[in-house]
Amino acid sequence: MGGSDNSESDWRRPQKSNKAATTSGSSDQPSSETAVINGETHLPLEDEANGKYMPVKLYRAAANKDDADHFVHVIEEIAAEKSLDLSQIIQQVTPLGNTLLHVAASHGNEESVNLLITASPFLIAKQNFVGDTAFHLAARAGHQLVITTLLHGGL
């Protein structure tokens, strides 16, 4: 089904961004490649490669509310590729501090929300860099089923 919730429509190709100079002098050099998701700049791609931030494909899988099986497959794929265990993958965040639970909840991905809080219930209380929990993002986006799932802890 199409609609405004579709993460594909909110995803744009990596683009160059300009970094403001923080020291004397100016720099016209573009900074590293970044991805733009839902209108926000995310994931300096070199930081994704060194494990600092969650991979873009993991973000996209968590945001896709139509395919929880694909979400699980992507987690397994990343675990195998990078020799990471589930807890290491689940603890990765976006540059804004959003966990996989934040991403899934903000996109109304109830099945993935349920899987995540069953595997790692501590994520329910985890705040991003501005103090929002997954519940806050789900409420702001109006995802009632996700809100209910979060309130009941996946039960």
Outline of the structure:
With 155 residues, the chain is of the alpha+beta class. 45% of the residues lie in helices and 12% in strands. The longest helix has 15 residues, at 68-82.
Could you characterize what this model shows?
By secondary structure, the protein is of the alpha+beta class. It has one domain (30-151): Serine Threonine Protein Phosphatase 5, Tetratricopeptide repeat (Alpha Horseshoe), CATH 1.25.40. It has helices spanning 7-10, 45-49, 56-63, 68-82, 86-90, 100-106, 110-119, 134-141, 144-151, and strands at residues 11-18, 30-37, 40-42. The protein has a 3-stranded antiparallel beta sheet. It is globular. The chain starts with 6 loop residues before the first helix and ends with a helix. Mean pLDDT is 77; it is low at 1-33.
Quaternary state of this entry equals single chain
CATH architecture annotation name: Alpha Horseshoe
**How many angstroms separate the termini?**
27 Å
Low-confidence spans: 1-33
The count of strands amounts to 3
What share of the residues does DSSP label as strand, in percent? 5-15%
* H-E string: HEEEHHHHHHHH
Number of helices: 9
- Arrangement of strands in the largest sheet: 1-2-3
Query: What is the domain tally?
Result: 1
Helix content: 40-55%
**Fourth CATH level, the homologous superfamily:** Ankyrin repeat-containing domain
Shape: globular
CATH topology: Serine Threonine Protein Phosphatase 5, Tetratricopeptide repeat
Round the mean pLDDT to the nearest integer and report it: 77
Protein structure class:
alpha+beta
- CATH class reads Mainly Alpha
